[in-house]
Amino acid sequence: MSRWTLYVPVLALLTLILTFGRDLPPPAVAVASLLLAGAVLAAVHHAEVVAHRVGEPYGSLILAVAVTIIEVALIVTLMVSGGEKAQSLARDTVFAAVMITCNGILGLSLLVGALRRRIAVFNPEGTGAAFATVTAIATLSLVLPAFTTSRPGPQFTPAQLGFAAVVSLGLYLLFVAVQTRRHRDYFLPITTAGEVIDSEEHVDPPSSRTALQSLGLLLVALVAVVGLAKGVSPAIESGVAAAGLPQSVVGVVIALLVLLPETIAAVRAAARDRMQTSLNLALGSAMASIGLTIPAIATAMIWLDGPLLLGLGGTETVLLALTVGVGTLTVVPGRANILQGGLHLSLLAVFLFLAASP
């Protein structure tokens, strides 16, 4: 294990403790940002160690759930301190997470995989089931609130929010049961000939002690990531305001920061010809972002004041529909080339451009 991956998470956590709750001057923001980046890279390393020990699909599931828990904590923390301007923060962050995972991580993984093997091959049963679940939860949580009539504005009533939270969590848990138990083989990497790869080749798994050490350091790194991200968030919000950008850009920046570990891990997996692992990370992250975030936010609304704006606007709904259509055509064949990767990355570029210039 590289020595820097041992020290950086601890150093980042110590910096978080020393700076927690304080207004940071520019030099401190710069140091926190560097340690934030280091903690992200360390988190990716330790997640890969744990994943190698427990095998797929458990490894990608551990990282997706861990990062989503951090995302939820960050959103709730910023909602508590953000006042009226944070009423749409959960929607903006979750939608950004869906677009980044389903277009950015998925597209980049397909592009890397196709450049390596000319054709990126994956299991259409597992990938299709994951994408269908993401589509259902995203529509329920982000589209329907704009069309319900019990309460004005793009929001659910408390009963509707509770129902959506239960259904989202239930679908996520059902998917996890299918992924890890009943149809685990659907989510294992396969070769271009269609053969299932149930273990890493030529590499012995780490010992239990090393895996437990990496698990602990992964949690430390992720806590440091969310804490330092919160510490630099005032600088992010000030920068967004100074640039004249919409408030929703803050949610995009949060999602980009939180999903960086999974992005790096997915691209590394694609470079090792483990396309299914990459897609497990991409779609699993999207599903966890909605299936866990919405129930957590719904619970937090018991104590938080003000409305929770969840419904997407017209532009965002069109982008989500386009992502679903293109994504369906991508995953159904079980094979993709650089065109599909380029299509998804183009959709991400459109989302980012329209987020900054609506």
Automatic annotation (TrEMBL):
Subcellular location per the Swiss-Prot or TrEMBL entry: Membrane
One GO CC annotation, please? plasma membrane
Q: Which InterPro entries match?
A: Alkaline_pH_Ca-Antiporter, NaCa_Exmemb
Key words, A-Z: Membrane, Transmembrane, Transmembrane helix
Endpoints of the signal sequence: none
A Pfam match: Na_Ca_ex
Q: Where is the Sodium/calcium exchanger membrane region domain?
A: 29-180, 214-354
Q: Which domain of life is it from?
A: Bacteria
Q: How does it sit in the membrane?
A: Multi-pass membrane protein
Protein name from the UniProt record? Ca2+:H+ antiporter
Originating organism: Actinoplanes philippinensis
